[in-house]
């Protein structure tokens, strides 16, 4: 099975787009979005609160400042921390696709959709 890859871009008021990356997986797109513009290093933090596990994703500024949360989720804690982290990361990926403004100023779309949209624009 082929994994879907994505195009990341930032648009401006004039309608021009800066392509940030093409052919990236969704996990890689998430990291690139968090680190776009040199804002810092992508970081995930977590803590256990009763029967729940809290995950936050954001960045640590390059200057060593405090963690800046972009978004967070809470999952039911299991005996497998890795599985809990995977479930949280899936939520973060969906936030990037459906509510990208929570993470960065651009958009992420499947490569095929981006190519189709640009092909249609160039033929009109």
Give your account of this protein's structure.
It contains three helices and six strands, in the order E-E-H-E-E-E-H-E-H. It is α+β, with helices and mostly antiparallel strands and 124 residues long. It has one domain. It has a three-stranded antiparallel beta sheet.
Helix and strand pattern: EEHEEEHEH
The whole-number mean of residue pLDDT values reads 90
Low-confidence stretches: none
First-residue to last-residue Cα separation: 34 Å
Whole-number radius of gyration? 16 Å
Helical content (DSSP H or I, runs of 4+): 25-40%
Shape estimate: globular
Helical segment count: 3
In spatial order, strands of the major sheet run: 2-1-6
User: How many structural domains are formed by the residues?
Assistant: 1
Bin the strand percentage: 35-45%
Work out the number of β strands: 6
Largest sheet: 3 strands, antiparallel
Short note summarizing the structure:
32% of the residues lie in helices and 36% in strands. It has three helices and six strands.
């Amino acid at each position: 099975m082929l994994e879907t890859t994505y195009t990341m871009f930032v648009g401006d008021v004039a309608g021009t787009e800066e392509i940030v990356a093409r052919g990236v997986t969704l996990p890689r797109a998430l990291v690139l979005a968090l680190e776009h513009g040199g804002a810092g290093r992508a970081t995930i933090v977590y803590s256990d609160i009763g029967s729940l596990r809290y995950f936050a994703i954001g960045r640590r500024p390059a200057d060593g400042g405090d963690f800046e949360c972009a978004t967070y989720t809470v999952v039911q804690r299991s005996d497998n921390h890795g599985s809990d982290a995977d479930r949280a990361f899936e939520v973060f990926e969906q936030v990037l696709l459906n509510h990208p403004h929570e993470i960065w100023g651009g958009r992420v779309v499947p490569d095929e959709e981006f190519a189709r949209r640009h092909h249609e624009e160039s033929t009109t």
